[in-house]
Amino acid sequence: MRYEHRPGRPSTEGAKKGDYGCAWGCVVLPGFVVLLMPLVLFETYWGHELWGDFAPAWPGGAYAFAGTVGALVPLVFLAWVAPLFRMNWKKSKPRSLAWAAASLPGLAAGYLVAGVISTTVRPKRRRNWDADCYSQGGPCWVHVHYPWLWVVGLVSTLAAAALLITVLVKLSGRATPTGPSTSGPEAGPTPCSPSGTGGRRPPA
Questions:
Q1: What secondary structure does DSSP assign to 42-86, as a single string?
Q2: How many CA atoms lie within 13 A of 126 on its CB side?
Q3: Three-state secondary-structure class, residue 188
Q4: Is the pTM value of this prediction over 0.70?
Q5: pLDDT-based confidence at 153, cuts 50/70/90?
Q6: What sign has the CA pseudo-torsion 111, 113, 117, 119?
Q7: What letters, b where the CB count within 10 A reaches 16 and e where it falls short, cover 167-190?
Q8: DSSP per residue over 132-146, as a string?
Q9: What SS3 state is found at 204?
Q10: Local confidence band at 103 (pLDDT 50, 70, 90 cut-offs)
């Protein structure tokens, strides 16, 4: 059976599509721009000094600095996500808001680490490799002198994540309480037992 739409009755599907379109255009896109702007500003204003001066002067050089940044990735991610798992709106809204506020420093640290990593990204097209990017001290200049920078950062991230997971698993195993023993005292011999005494003392 088919149900035709009546001319005088408004369509609910069109209203739903309009609502989602407004939510995407009015909230999602501006929010994405706001989240992306700190990374762009970081690359524009601090990328040259970071990889041109600060990273080579780091103890161990730019490779050691890349390893340090890579090891910070799982740590700042845990600092951001761990408080969010403690939130429970049904149980207590003020406490949930407090846990949400506690995750903000981890989020800020994550933005800082992401900004440091984003400054080393090469443009995909060679014509965009301008003098600004590859000049002495430019953010892309670091790939010329340290070609295996991304490998060091990736390996340090995976190693730090594996170590962090191992520590968390061990801590959760210690925190899990062991249940009380349900086994009762050992029962005495029964009439069908091999001794045949039925719980009585055998004759001397």
A1: HHHHHHHHIIIIIHHHSTTHHHHHHHHHHHHHHHHHHHHHHHHHT
A2: 0
A3: coil
A4: no
A5: very high
A6: positive
A7: eeeeeeeeeeeeeeeeeeeeeeee
A8: HHHSTT-GGGHHHH-
A9: coil
A10: confident
Name residue, tokens 């920078």: 149
Q: Looking at beta carbons, which pairs linking 53-60 to residues 24 or more positions away fall under 8 Å?
A: 53/137, 55/142
- For residue 191, the one-letter residue type is P
Q: What is the pLDDT of residue 71?
A: 94
Give residue-wise pLDDT tens across range 154-202: 999 999 999 999 998 888 877 655 555 555 555 555 555 555 555 555 5
Angle between helices 61-85 and 104-118 (to 10 degrees): 150
Of the candidates 64, 103, 105, the one whose C-alpha atom is nearest the C-alpha of residue 86 is 103
Among the listed ranges 95-109, 112-126, 159-173, which one has the minimum average pLDDT value?
112-126
**CA atoms of 96 and 83, how far apart (whole Å):** 9
Q: Which tokens in the block code for residue 3? A: 């149900």
